[in-house]
Amino acid sequence: MTQMLTGAGRWTAPQAGEYRVAQGRVWITRDGDTQDHVLADGECLAVRQGEVLVVEPWTPGQGVRWSFERSRPAVTPLRLAAWVAGGLVSVAAALREWALRLDPELLAD
Q1: Left, alpha or beta for 102 (phi > 0: left; psi -120 to 50: alpha)?
Q2: What is the pTM of this model?
Q3: Cβ-proximal residues to 36 (8 Å cutoff; 6+ apart), any chain
Q4: Which of 7, 39, 77, 79 is the most buried (most CB within 10 A)?
């Protein structure tokens, strides 16, 4: 969701992600960071969860449209394996149920 910034303010990142400028130019100062950041159309700044930014339009009185996009977890081999395993368990349970409907004695001891 795009928001409008018309004056200086503090913003706290709800979670890790990117502060992205859609239109305009913004001046950003981070708590604990000695560098200021200036972002223009399409540029973004990675932020950590709970990070506090002081944000203001580069040109006083000129509005800036911006958005926040949360980070998505990276797909790692372990996450992929867990996802596939979860799917296989579901498929196996469905096949077992189907087989028992066809022949209730099929899986009897």
Answers
A1: alpha
A2: 0.61
A3: 27, 28, 29
A4: 39
- Rounded to whole angstroms, the Cα distance separating 89 from 33 reads 48
Parallel/antiparallel/unpaired status of strands 26-30 and 52-57: antiparallel
Which DSSP string corresponds to 2-64? -EEE-S-EEEE-SSSEEEEEEES-EEEEETT-SSEEEE-TT-EEEE-TT-EEEEEESSTT--E
Cα-to-chain-centroid distance, residue 6: 25
- Tell me the CATH class for 3-70: mainly beta
Say how far apart CA 79 and CA 20 lie, in whole Å. 28
Q: Which residue's structure tokens are 């296989």?
A: 88
In tens, the pLDDT along 26-68 reads 999 998 888 999 999 999 999 999 999 999 999 988 889 998 8
